[in-house]
Structure formats: structure tokens, C-alpha cells
Task: structure prediction
Amino acid sequence: MVETLRKAGEEMGGAVLRPVGVLPQAVPIQAPPPVHPAAYRRMIVTQDPTLQRLLEEAAVVAPTDATVLIEGESGTGKELVARYIHEKSARAGRPFVAINCAAVPEGLLESELFGYEKGAFTGAQGRRLGRFEMASSGTLLLDEIGEMPLSLQVKLLRVLQEREIDPLGGREPVPLDIRVVATTNRCLSDDVAAGRFREDLYYRICTFPLAIPPLRERVCDIPILLDHFIKRGSIRYKKAVSIGPEVLAALEGRQWRGNVREFEGVIERAILLAHNGRIAPEDLSPRVSLQGKRSPYRVGSTLREVERSFILETLQQVGNNRTYAARTLGISIRTLRNKLRGYRASI
Result:
């Protein structure tokens, strides 16, 4: 798979785990030869020395079964690095199973991870495999592990130590043969100090930590990411476009709080808005500014109304990125999800 992606990248003139040339002042983007969409999706495009060193370290640990913790802000490409590790390992071609610990309700996460036997609880009509068993002989990605409740953390610790699981309602443990990779957008050491994450589990999953730098710290990647996403968008929308140096300068001047995910969305929007086949600075998503705005809250509003308005406005400003919104608000993504569910119920 990695070799396939490398060849696809060379056909595109992009970069897959290697540096490429910087864009000229104005580059007409012609639709390249057909490339499978999955190849675009799984490419790691970089010429940043820090990220390249990280990928070299990932390649070193990949052939082993050591547990890897990938840290980084939302949108930096943590799952891409996890897949890279999987594809560089002896488990390549075997299952790669991912579960977002923040997206599954707390009451269901245990059964999602460990599975259950028939009759384990009301409604358990038959045996159901959990994600650990689904990933047998392959790799399991525990995405946003920092959102896992403490009650499950102790069970996960035992699984990582003993390499076996106890399905709900099961009579005996089930042995495992898997590689575990975890990701987080939180500072787990701070969570350990605050009692939100078990210290023993932290040291178990932090055998080999990898920290992905945010996009604002690798501005040198913006030209090649721009090239990559324009080519991909040209294929998707069957629309050839060109850019000028003013567009590149505008992109390099942003902070990109949503990182590569935000960058991708901005370029896709710009391709759709481009007039006469050329992207102009005004085609880029407008930056949100609160300066000069009057407060939307009026005297007499309840605290719940103010909180609801503020949370929804924050979500809108960060492009409905719940992970980043939760971090901005200083709450967990699980708390944010529960509040949003409550708002929907009250409508």
C-alpha cells in the first residue's frame, strides 16, 4: 500500500513522505491522470523537517508491537500517521480498526470495545464482537483516548498488560494478537496530574510517543498542501484552476487553528468559488472576527440560554469542529455532546 501511494504521489507531482518543490508564482492546475481517491486520502504530504523526523521514528517503531501514543491538535493527521505505522508493520494487509472514544456514549463504549455474549444484558440477542476482536492480527486505533472514562481505563490497562479481553457475559478470557495505537488532542500528563487519566495507563500507552506539530509551526508545508488539495479538488469537481502569489501569501499568514483539516476545507471552498478558473484571495473563507460586534445576550436571559447561545456560536466559528470547540470552551467533548443533545431535546 505504501509503495502504491508513493507511486500515486509521483504521478501527481506531490510529495509522499518526501519534500517537493515550492509552487511557482502562478501555477495552472490541470486535471492529472485518474488516481484512486483512497490514495489521495491516505497521503502524508510534507517537507517539514520535524514531521519528516517523526515519520522516520514511526517507521522505526512500526515493525514492532510496541504501543504508540500519537499526540497532536485536532486536524493534524493523527489517524494518517497511525495508518502509516500499520502499513509499515508486519500486520499490513490485516484489519485496521478505529474507534473514537469520544464519539461513543459512555454506556456503550465497553461493549463496543470488548463485545458481549448472548444474554449478557437485555436485548443481547446474540454474540457480538468488540473492536479488539475485530482487529485480530491487525491494528486497533483508540482515537481520542483521553476521553475514555476512568471506569474503562482500568479495564483497558489490564487488556494491554495481559493481551486478553473479557467480553460482557463471557465465561473465560479471549486471547488477543493485535497492535494498539492511541491518539489524543489533550495533554495527558496534565490530565494525569488532575486525576482525569490514570497514571499507570498513561505510562503503558506512552511506550513510544509521537507529537505531530500543528500546521502553524510548519508553514513550509502550505505550498505543497495547496498543490495537493487543488489537484484532488480538480479531480473531484472536474474543474481546473490556477492560483497567484497573493493567495499563497494569504494562506501562509493564517494561524490554522483547525490545522490541515481546516486548510483542506478552505481550499475545497475556493475551488468551487473560483471564477474563470483562477482562485482569488476573496475566494478563501472569511476569517471570523468578534471586534466591533455587539453582545448577542440581553439582560433577562437565563444562564442556560446564554450558555446555549455561546456554545452554538463557538461551534459556528470553528466550522462545527466539536473537538476544537470543546477545547476552546474548556470542557470535554463528551460534555459538549451531552449539552448539544439536551438542546435538541428542548426544541
